[in-house]
């Protein structure tokens, strides 16, 4: 269905944390995975998300935690393509919690 792209979001991060705010016309990234955990808050937007083998709808106001190396993608609905989509994403390495995350 999708070709998986391997990325390393925190490659240059010394702290093991990165925060990214996205203001887009639509969510339409490549199907990807990375070693960082990802906490996504969807401020505005709706569509379908694929996380691992799960495919579900997403809407405004959702908060989703994605595990390390778990393939995922967010795709806005066709009728939303010209609308504003916005998210706030926290990327982090599990090591910042001192071994509390398995």
Sum this structure up briefly.
This protein is 0% helix and 46% strand. It contains no helices and nine strands.
Briefly note the structural class of the backbone.
mainly beta
Number of strands: 9
Helix content: under 10%
Q: Give the overall shape, derived from the CA principal axes.
A: globular
Question: Topology, please?
Answer:
Blueprint: E1 5-6, E2 17-24, E3 32-33, E4 37-44, E5 47-51, E6 54-58, E7 63-66, E8 72-76, E9 85-92
Parallel strand pairs: 1-3
Antiparallel strand pairs: 2-9, 4-7, 4-9, 5-6, 5-8
What does this structure look like?
With 102 residues, this protein is mainly beta. It has one domain (21-94): Jelly Rolls (Sandwich). It contains no helices and 9 strands. The strands form 3 sheets. Strands 2-9-4-7 form a 4-stranded antiparallel beta sheet, with no helix packed on it. The N and C termini lie far apart (30 Å).
Features:
four-stranded antiparallel sheet, 102 residues, Jelly Rolls, mainly beta, 0% helix
């Amino acid at each position: 269905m999708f070709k998986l792209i391997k990325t390393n979001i925190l490659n240059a991060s010394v702290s093991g944390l990165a925060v990214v705010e996205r203001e887009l016309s639509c969510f339409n990234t490549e199907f990807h995975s990375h070693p960082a955990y990802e906490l996504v808050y969807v401020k505005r937007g709706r569509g379908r998300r694929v996380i691992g083998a799960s495919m579900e709808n997403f809407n405004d106001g959702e908060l989703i935690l994605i595990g390390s190396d778990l393939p995922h993608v967010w795709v806005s609905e066709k009728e939303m393509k010209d609308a504003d989509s916005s998210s706030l994403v926290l990327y982090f390495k599990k090591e910042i919690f001192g071994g509390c995350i398995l």
